Amino acid sequence: MESQYAPLSESCAKALGDKVYDKRKLASQEIEKMVVEFNAKNNTAQIRKLIDVLSNDFASSRDANKRKGGLIGLAATSLGLGKDSSKYVNELVQPILNCLSDQEARIRYFACESLYNVVKVARSSIIPFFPDLFSALSRLVADSDQMVKDGSELLDRMLKDIVTESSNNFNLEAFIPLLKERIYVKNSFVRQYVISWISILNAVPEINMVTYLTDIIDGLFTMLEDNTQEIQRMCETTLTQFLKSIRNDSSSVRMEDTINILITHAQSQNELIKATAITWIREFVIIFGSKMLPHTSGIFTAILPCLEYNVDNMKNIKECAVAVNKSMMRLVSSKEHKTQNIEQLDLRSIMAVLSQYLSHDSVQTKVAVLEWIHHLLIHFPNEMSHQTQLGNNLLNILSDNSDEVVLKCISVLAEIVNSQHSKGTADFNKAHYRKFLLSLVNLFSEDKSFLDNRASLIIRQLCVLLNAEYIYLSFAEIIAEEVTNLKFASLLVRLLNSILLTSSELFELRTTLRDISNPNSANLFKTLYLSWVHCPVSTISICLLSQNYQHVSELVNLFADIEITLELLNELDKLVQLIETPIFASLRLTLVSKANNCADAQYLAHALFGILMLLPQTDAFNMLKNRLQCIPNYWGQQPINEQHSLQYKSKINFSELLEHFKKVQKNHREQRLSQRKRSSVIVNDV
Prior knowledge:
It contains 37 helices and no strands. By secondary structure, it is mostly helical. Among the domains are: 1-169, Alpha Horseshoe (Leucine-rich Repeat Variant); 423-508, no CATH class; 535-683, no CATH class. Residues 424-428 have low confidence and may be disordered.
């Protein structure tokens, strides 16, 4: 009677299911010999029957020992078949795969051992089962039993050798979903397993893993946060290999999808992830050039916050971000493809990001943002003209604590005004200057500390970058027509006058005002005068500068009706000190000049004596007194002919200007009286 396990004998079947390993081993050797004989006679029926018995009656048995026997028997069958095992690979592999998930650790280990022997002889025939093998091994590498782990590692190495040598038959497209599924597993053993497969496949010349990089790069970057240094090292090495492949041939990479992933990881809080992502962005900008322009706003989001890093461990990140910033600026300003660049740049999203980082805490970041805005204004003035909110955003930056930020901001604001002015006529377009400076005046009026600490720097820099004459004309008109707060008007005039008289940036404007006989200079003087009258000493100063000495004498006489305050005396003191500076060297020489029949010299001497009489006997008094003692004693011996004076030649109606001075000073006096009355009422009520 035939054995129920035929073609196995009863004794062989019994030994194969024995709990003693040596007996199972002897049975497997008998099976191997049997298979060799069957195969030699080409008896496929008996071979399949044997495999069926081993699979169903042993490997699938509820008895653990029988399952162990089935596994060693299937391995022996494969060894007996040798290269012909490829004909039966499906029947051999499937039952072993099922045992890889067995609850007993020893059976999982024997399954690894059995499958190793099958794979060793089947070689490339095993490739169709690779997805199932990969999935099973991804579980086994994290097994709680060390023997199972060791067995899975041996099997994994064998599989890698086979895939490498049979790469032409490997279905990479089917493998990628398996990688994507397991690449986000947080177990360190699984991560190490996944990275090793990616690295191996990327090293095979016939396999182009770069094509599928977008599917796995997010997971690779996520793995960089693993606390295991070995995994970090493996991941960094793998990413470096990919980057090297892209440098050699970038045609396969899906750049648009990949750069978005890189931008996301560049914003990670993890230092290694951030550094690696920005390094990749730097390389992508070099490799893909202008193709990166549509992603400019995202790149800004990635690099701009990194510019603030100053600590040593973040230095490399900052240097990389700076390099990306410079490369992007070169791409944007490229004249070779300017039209194409304009089309690729999404200025709205770019400006949205730049505006967001204008309020960043870092000085370096804000400076970079302002440099970019300035760069865009220069290269794309027409397209940037639609950024209507830009000016308001920039005005808020002028109160920044950093001088560097403020100066950069002024440069941008000046460029905006210049770009608007260039669209108009060649003549001075008041509207563009006035709109901008009116906003600036409003800022000065709202914040006294801003006026005291920042106004001088802002105005001086604007005079360098824009037309100083236009700046002063616009300020004067705004003060005369728009400013209702007389105290603020006086403060602003005093500031503008101080800058005018002392700043090297305004040398040309001072020279223009001195040439008072020139119609243009006369008009400039009249416009400034109408506002300068808010501050009596500033009015005298500008008249001295413009050589209208006769009018100074008339103004000094009016000081009898002006309240002489400590503030006014301090201003007179500063004026006397200014007269001794190089700026007023020509004024001092006028005192000894016989030009214009000595008219200007005598009017000036009279004016200075008047100022001397207003001063208390301080150092300033003695300084001016000493200066006036140097005047030749022949002055005043003959009557003055006003027609010989420079003031007369200017053809300015000084009578009207004098009346305007009286009117404005009357308004100041009335406002001071009104404020004192209100203050008195408040005190009495209290």
